[in-house]
Structures are given as C-alpha cells and as structure tokens.
Amino acid sequence: MINLLLFPIIIPFFFAIVLLFFKEQVRIQRILTVIGLSASIVAAFSLIMKVKQDGIQTLTLGSWPAPFGITMVSDMFSALLVTSTLVITLFVAIYSFSSIGEERERFFYYPAILFMITGVNGAFTTGDIFNMFVFFEVLLIASYLLIVLGGEKRQLRESIKYILVNVISSAFFVITIAYLYSIVGTLNMADIGQKIADIGQPGIVSVIGVLLLLVFGIKAGIFPLYFWMPGSYAAPPVPILALFGALLTKVGVYAITRTYTLFFVNDLAFTHTILMVLALLTIVAGCIGALAYFDLKQIIIYNILIAIGVILFGVSLMNEAGMQGAVFYLIHDMLIKGALFLIIGIMIHVTGTSNLREMGGLIKTHAPLGWLFLIAAFGLAGIPPLSGFVGKLLIVQGGFEHGQLFGTIVILLSSLIVLLSVIRIFIYAFWGEPVALQPTNRKTYKHMMFPTVILVALSVLYGVGTEWIFPYVSDAAHVLLDPSSYINAVLKE
Amino acid sequence: MKKNNVILQTTAKVTFFIISLFSIHIFFAGHFAPGGGFVGGLLTTGAIVLLLLAFDLETVQATLPFNFTIVIGIGLLLSLGTAAGAILFNVPFFTHAFAHFDLPLFGDTELHTAMIFDSGVYLVVVGAAITIIQSIGGDE
Questions:
Q1: CA A181 to CA A108: how far, in whole Å?
Q2: Phi-psi category of A439—alpha, beta or left, where left has phi over 0 and alpha has psi -120 to 50?
Q3: How many CB pairs lie under 8 A apart between chains A and B?
Q4: Shortest Cα distance, chain B CAs vs residue A264, angstroms
Q5: What is each CA distance from A270 to A203, A205, A267, A390, in whole angstroms?
Q6: Do A62 and B73 touch (CB under 8 A)?
Q7: How far apart are CA A76 and CA A57, in angstroms?
C-alpha cells in the first residue's frame, strides 16, 4: 500500500463529498461523519506504525519523478499531527451532535469540518511548498464557512475581519513562494532545503525566511500578528472554536517549524533569534490577555498564544531537548486545548453566559464538571504527571543547554500565569455562592460530557504514558534536527 | 423592469447553444491544447448566466431543474474517483492511464483517464458557479 500516507487526507475528503448528497438528513450526516473520521483514525494509526517501522514515507503524485511532481511526505512529526487532528475532530464532532443545533447541521456543518480536516492533514503531509499553499486555502475556505455559519451579527462582523486578514496573508504567501522560486528554481521542499544549503543562504533567503514567518505567523497568531485572533475565534459556537483553537493555529506552527528546520538552517543567529524573540513576546502578550479578561472564551484563547510561544521557543533553540519538547508540547496542546474548549462550552451551556462574574457555585450542582475542569487546568499548566509537564520540562532543559537563561525563565514564569488564569476560572465559576441557573436539559449535558471526558482522559494518558509515547516524539524531533534524512527520503530515486 | 427584450431573448436562445457547443469543444481540446474542464465549465456557466440575464431566475430554474449542489458532489466524486483509481493498482495517487482505440467514425482515438477527471472539474465549476449566482440573485 504505497498510498497509505494519503488515506488520512482522502478519507475525510471522500466522506465530505458524500455528505453533500444528504443535506437534509441530519442523522445520516452524523453517522457518516463518525464512520469517516473513525476510518481515517485507523489509517492514521497504521501510518504511524509504518513510519516507525520503515522510516519516512514519500509518494510523488501521478508517478512523476521526485523534484518535479508534487511529493507527499509523512515523517513521524506529520504522522503524529495528522493522528491527533483526526482524534480531536472525532470528539468535537460527537460533541456537536447535541450542541451545535440542527439549523447549522443542515447547512453543511459536517462537510465543512471534513473539508477543513482534508486541508489540515494535507498541509501537515505535503512536501511541496506550493501545494502547502493550496491545502492552506482548502482549510481556510472551509473555515470561512464555519466562522459565518449561523449568521449571527457578531459572526458576520468577525468573519469580515477573519477573511480579510487571511486573504492578505495568503497573497503574501504566494508572493513569497514566487520570490523563493525565483531564487532556487524549485517548489519541492526537500529540494529547496538542499538548494539553499548549496548556495549557503545569502541575505535574500533570510528575507524570505522572515516573510514566511510573517505569513505563517498570521495563521499561528504570534506576537504582533495575533490581533485578529481573540475577536474572530470567540465569534462562532464552541465546537467550531475548539476546532479552530486546537487545529488551525497549529497548522501555522507546523509550517513555521517545518520551514525553519528544513530551509533556513544556515543562518541561525539571524532567523532563529527573530523567532525566539517573537516567541517570547507572544508568551508575554498571551499572559497579559489571559489575566486581563473575565470572559471564559478570551482567557482560553489567550492561553493558545502562550502555548504557541512556548512551542516556537522550543523550535528556535534547535537542540535535541528543545525540539523534542516542542513536538511533545505541540500534541499536548492540541489535545488539552480541544478538551478545555469543550469544557468551557459545557459551562457556557449550563450557565448561559461566558462572563465569569456572573457564574458561581457550579461545584454544588455540577461536581463532575468541576473536577474535570481542574484536571484539564492542571494538565494545561503542566503539573506532573499530567501531559503539559514533560514537554515544558524538555523545552526548559533545551533552553538551559542553549544558554538562554532569560527566555527559559520567562517560560517558567508563564507556567505560573497559565495556572493562575485557569484557576481563576475555577474559583470564580465553581466556588462561591451558587447563582440561579436556567433549567437546562440534563440529557444534553450528559451528551456533551461524554466526548469531553474522553478527550481529557486521552490527555491524561498522554502525560502518564510518556514512557511509551516518547520514542515516537524523539523520532519526530530527530528528523526535524537532521534535514538530510528528510531530503534523502524524498530525493532518493 | 424589463419589458421589451424580445431581441435579447431571441438572441440568447440561439447564442446559448453556440456557447455550449463551443464549451464542449474547448473541454475536449483541453488535453493537448489550451482549454479543459475549468474553462469549459466557465463557458457553460457563462451561457447559463446569459439566459438568466435575458429571462429570469424562475424560468431558468424551470428549464434546468437540477440541484446544483448535487452537481458539485457528482463532479467531486468523479474527480476523486479517477485519482483514487490508482490506489487499486498500487501506483501513486493521480497516476493516469491512456491507450489508443480504433473507434468507428472517429478513427484512431486516444482515450485518457484524465478526461474523466476533467469532466469532474467541469461539473464542479458549473455547479459551484451557478450555486453562487442563484444564491446571490435569489435573495433580493
């Protein structure tokens, strides 16, 4: 099965198409979505096994030779990301059954999710920089639908901002690729990496590096470019917010990581210092936001910024511990952010507001929800043995090895602020005098709890089972630090 | 609003067929010469838009009673199916096959699976463009 690495892209795409034929039959849509995502997860896990056993998988579409055709490459890093994407999407889809409302389900909600996953997985897998742009567009166009779906006033306002920002960043992306092509004369990422190494990264290539950082930074939400994110992400309903927060920003992080470990590795003092400074500033900005707001959604959205800063700091160190930490933390953050967004979704459902000041005493009526939130919050802050700990430990270790005392201390302090920001939610929402709640459907609450509990349990397992997961993470980091293994795998013929 | 557009309506009826035939020509020319499913689809859409201008939305919907969302779905399935056919033969995705056949009337003809892929593209373009025009033109 040489096409195995494409299955996590093709299967969601196929099911998305099939769902177009069942616009009105919501039940069939739900069943097909779950089947499609489960089948993709099976494929993704067998892909991980295959990559672990046989090394990097590559496939050049249409049987063209490697630097000319579009190559799809699955190394451990992309296989792990593809798998976590699918797992999170499955649980968010199940969560949507009882929370998104039939109105939206009828308007291509599930096909849009599946098309978006096609784009996300494609962007993780592709080995061709222009093809990466195409997959970015696929996921963006699906996300435009998702952000505006339902047509509330706030959604319409924010979607204009969202579309404008992303159209501009996509334009920059194409222009940057054109610059890059005019210098190296190839679009194949492995080939670009090799050519840049051959010409020794003159100044113009570093300029392209910064431009790419700008393009992906807008998507990932790094320091000066995150301005659109808190507003736009808070507009759509919680399941969509969970998908955006857990997946879309991570595609930007993936793209930065890939290009900064494969292309721009010959002038680390310039490119990676910029990356590091921006990462630290992102953390600071995220910390300020996370403490400043009394809105559940905003607090968690600003926590995304902090996580992105931490991951990119790990990447910018370019040493083994830092990179392993970045990979580990990236997957941890996808799981835990997905789980946290689902939890605050339940809290908003129960209380009818996202304003912390209007909540209180939830622990008396919804004790399991409270404990679930506490576990997820500790996981986010990185309290051992939960999953945030190992990633941050490795990044901190990498930071000290690199001699970056200041940056590392910022990372450590940011953990405290993360803990403070989420514990504030716990104190305000769960402690204190109970406020009168609108009577809500207990059954809906249970249906929403089910996928959330599993997602939190998965993140706990991810932390407790580090011993088993670590070989995979270490494989992923190994390929990132040794671009020649990636280049050889693609250009072997 | 429009009352005296006999000339436009009569011309549109004839031109519609000329443009449609031309779009089919462009579609088939697409393999070795400029053209193909995308341009062919746009031309067909152009022909339908001409009808929309000459008549109105209801008349055109009654003449072409398709659900264009389904057309998009069929087109995507055709394209994906052609590309995924390669999986059955265990060659890379998107690998196409072609052969020469001696067909009656046409003589020696090259049949290529890329044609099936392109007809999928054609359907998607027509379906998407008409859906957009219908939903924009539909709510006034």
A1: 37
A2: beta
A3: 45
A4: 30
A5: 10, 11, 6, 29
A6: no
A7: 9
Give residue A80's pLDDT band: very low, low, confident or very high (50, 70, 90). Answer: very high
Between chains, do B94 and A61 touch, taking CB under 8 Å as contact?
Answer: yes
Distance between CA atoms of residues A459 and A455, nearest Å: 6
Give the CA distances from residue A48 to residues A482, B72, B125, in Å, rounded to whole numbers and listed in that order.
Answer: 19, 33, 36
The owner of tokens 């690998």 is B95
Residues of A in contact with B92 (CB under 8 A): 2-3, 59-63
Query: CB-based contact (8 Å) between B86 and chain A?
Result: yes
- The tokens for A396 are 């901190």
Dihedral (Cα; A128, A130, A132, A138), 10-degree rounding: -140
Q: Which pLDDT tens digit goes with each residue over A362-396?
A: 888 888 999 999 999 999 988 888 888 999 999 99
Of the candidates A1, A20, A61, the beta carbon closest to that of B73 is on: A20
Q: What percent of chain B has pLDDT over 90?
A: 37
B91 touches chain A (CB under 8 A): yes
Is-contact B127 A37, C-beta < 8 A? no
pLDDT at A147 over 60: yes
Q: Chain A contacts of B84, Cβ < 8 Å? A: 10, 14
Contact A81, A331 (CB under 8 A): yes
d(CA A27, CA A334): 28
Interhelix angle for A268-292 vs A296-317, to 10°? 160
Q: How far apart are CA A26 and CA A28, in angstroms?
A: 6
Residue A243, C-beta contacts closer than 8 angstroms, at least 6 positions apart: A88, A89, A92, A113, A116, A146, A338
For the segment B75-115, what is each residue's pLDDT rounded down to a tens digit? 999 999 999 888 888 888 888 888 888 888 877 878 888 88
Q: Which amino acid is at A311?
A: I
Structure tokens at A24: 């009105």
Q: Would an 8 Å CB–CB cutoff place B24 in contact with chain A?
A: no
In the prediction, which pLDDT does A493 show? Answer: 54
Among A7, A11, A13, A17, the strongest candidate for a mutation testing the B interface, having the largest count of B CBs within 10 A, is A17
Domain ranges across chain A: 4-490
ipTM of this predicted complex?
0.90
State the sign of the Cα–Cα–Cα–Cα dihedral A141, A146, A149, A151: negative
DSSP state of B96: -
